[in-house]
Amino acid sequence: MDEAQIKKDLVDMLGKDKVLIKDLDLMYYSYDSSFFTKLEPKNPMAVVLPKSTEDVQKVMRYAYDNQINIIPRGAGTGETGGCIAVSGGIVLDLSSWDDIVEIDAANMQVIVRPGIIHAKLNEKLAEYNLFFPPDPGSSQMCTIGGMVANNASGLRAVKYGCTEQYVLGLEVVLPNGDVIITGGMKSKAIKNVSGLNLTKLMVGSEGVLGIITRIRLRCWPKPKARGIAMAVFDNLDDAPATVLEVYREGVLPSGIEILDSSAIQAVNQFKPEINLPDAEAILLFEVDGNPPGVEYEGNIIKEVAGRRARQVEWATDPKRMAQLWEGRSVTAAAAARVRPDGSRVFAGEDISVPLSKVADALRAIRALGEKHGVQVVNYGHIGDGNVHTAPVINPENPEEVERVKQLVDDIHLLAIEMEGSTTGEHGVGVVRRPYAEKEHGLAVKYMKGIKQVFDPRGIMNPDKLF
Ligand SMILES: Cc1cc2nc3c(=O)[nH]c(=O)nc-3n(C[C@H](O)[C@H](O)[C@H](O)COP(=O)(O)OP(=O)(O)OC[C@H]3O[C@@H](n4cnc5c(N)ncnc54)[C@H](O)[C@@H]3O)c2cc1C
After folding, report:
1. Using one digit for the tens of pLDDT, what is the confidence trace for 369-407?
2. CATH topology match: 100-221 vs 225-334
3. Hey, where are the domains in the chain?
4. Per-residue pLDDT tens over the stretch 335-377
5. What interhelical angle do 291-306 and 238-248 show, nearest 10?
6. Which residues are CB-contacts of 341 (< 8 A; sequence separation ≥ 6)?
7. Which residues pair with residue 288 across a beta bridge?
8. Does CATH number 3.30.70.2740 belong to domain 339-431?
9. Closest atom of ligand 1 to CA, residue 461
10. Given this structure, which CATH class describes domain 225-334?
């Protein structure tokens, strides 16, 4: 169908305020936060900014009838090209549809539209002494719709799990315009084992099955106290060993982060005043809960970490906690500055491996960096084996770009070899598609079968996932 006609039809259907068709506007939608889109940006044909389920339904029916691709988008903070119209089509930008429909504090849940920003939701929930625990580094930018679609997590997943644990029900507009409610049409229940679990199916489906237009989330009581411990190690293997020993003592921290020597050097170079101790690894533990419990668990961590660490500090004073955590909070920015002519690329950045293999994975990634001549900075959510790798290159140099592509391929394969996953939290999108068969085998055939049921015409976010 003629593009000019499609643009005209969209404007006629929704009004010009909800449709973007100018090249300059469309260019913004050719990127997300991935390195992939820096190399291969792709403008969509048009962008629609829906404000209601009916708006979404109209676009979906039109696209279905005319065989046009639809690509949902939240804030575009994804690292995998997931919200990009790689094979052309209409982007549905849900970021401005951001109402909190209802905070039902009595039933410990909240109902929102997809565009609400994670940090804003938690600010509002805090007024009710509640919170939505998953805590991505992109909290100030990413949408809850994007988090559900990517099953996002982050620093606190070790104790609180990923987004999926909190999604009680969804409204989803399917490619043919049907609207389904998962988790019970009228349900406000927290427990519900009725029917096939379509909620779980939709969470993490990366927009390939339908558009998530309403989200019912479980909330938790906000903990009253926090504490931070920092432990400094001269031997890399002592860091994961300490994590295991802390678990064995019956303590489950709300966050356990690692900075290896490459990250420690990057932080000290970026902000010398932070002055992290020179070491093979630093672990940061966050504990939350009620004040006596936090103190008790902090003391256990101090004692356990002290068996192997050169230095351990435990703090509950907010100023000192912020100082201890500062190194971790600037790591991503610091990684980007390790080379004056370089920048960090988001590729191969979030593999996950079994806890028992974290030290081996970090060593192997360093060796791969040397093999391909690419500087890498390593850190991550060690509590659940999620390793963050920041390759730093000059992206204007084609030869370096080629080398980083090979490095990243090796890192993904390493994850599978080590009984891990190519992605612990950022998802598959376009960039991890080549590993689908290797990672999932025959299961991919059945994933494709499920997609066929929801999207028989193949218009929903095509060329993603598998
Ligand atoms: C600095 C930084 C730090 C980050 N830290 C973390 C982290 O700690 N943990 C983590 O998990 N991720 C992290 N991310 C990745 C990213 O922020 C998350 O994946 C986030 O959930 C994406 O949300 P978004 O609104 O930006 O979605 P987008 O990037 O716009 O879209 C992501 C995917 O979701 C689909 N989608 C979006 N909205 C909908 C909808 N309403 N219905 C159906 N499909 C939809 C898109 O098609 C796409 O496939 C980080 C990113 C950055 C830039």
Report:
1. 999 999 999 999 999 999 999 999 999 999 999 999 999
2. no
3. 100-221, 225-334, 339-431
4. 989 998 899 999 999 999 999 999 999 999 999 999 999 999 9
5. 140
6. 394
7. 226
8. yes
9. 47
10. alpha beta
